[in-house]
Amino acid sequence: MQADSSWKRDAPRQAILFCLLFLCLPIYGQSLGFLAGTNASAILLDVQTGRTIATFGRTGIPSTPGSTLKPFLLLAALKEGIVTEHTTVECRGILTIDDRGHPRNLACTHPRTTTIFAAQAALAYSCNTYFARLAARMSPTQLTQSLSNFGIRTQPIDDPNQRILQALGLFSVKVSAEQLARAYALLAREFTSAHSNPANIVHQGLLDSVSFGMADNAAVPGLTLAGKTGTASDPGRPWTHGWFAGIVEDAPATVLVVYVPHGSGADAATLARTILAKRERKP
């Protein structure tokens, strides 16, 4: 799941990141013409109204969501008692899942300084081992319902290995940037209205993800941001793409989703930081 970080070996990704980072991206503008011909996209939504504030690129194209699905699964599992906030999993950084006869390396990319994860930290550090174990405890219907609660449709899968891949956002599920943004807007409203312990744990896990976890590239000083990265690849394609989905909690609350083809979640988080920093500087 980890993307190649070499700029020299990935010219398409380099061009996209250069455009987005250095051509003075205006956060309240229309879709940017220089993104024509690519799938790079970003969308900003108002949490309460669902109104689209700004879009960049083509935000309706579905792609494999990767780890951006983890908050929805964790919230459902906590609500249904499948796990508690204190349920721990030991992660040794190694995870291989059989994908229809082909071993798939899903080793965790978080720092090895932490090896025992409970719910909140597992989300902050996006621990694949934790969420693979979580998926194994969920029935096919429980897993798909956890996603459909937020408008993400997929089919129940009986095969346990494929169900793990589905839970990790790598198989049998695709979302567009707009769809993911609307799902995170629903999640944001859950945080403010439910005031339940499961919602609080997921909320804090996403805050921690930006503060010191796998989404820390998105952090903007002085901005309260809860977010999640994802890195995945679509079937038949050797390259990865990156996602960042974040909830900006400073009033008015907004959701920002960034999708970067030929990139990683860390790249998408970096772009999100640039977009949000420019938004904060607007008069």
From TrEMBL:
Gene3D superfamilies: DD-peptidase/beta-lactamase superfamily
Keyword Cell cycle included in the entry's annotation: yes
UniProt-listed InterPro entries: Beta-lactam/transpept (IPR050515), Beta-lactam/transpept-like (IPR012338), PCN-bd_Tpept (IPR001460)
GO molecular function annotations of the record: penicillin binding
Domain Penicillin-binding protein transpeptidase: 41-275
SUPFAM superfamilies xrefs: beta-lactamase/transpeptidase-like
Coiled-coil intervals: none
GO-annotated biological processes: cell division; cell wall organization
GO CC terms: plasma membrane
Keywords, comma-separated and alphabetical: Cell cycle, Cell division
Stated name of the protein: Cell division protein FtsI [Peptidoglycan synthetase]
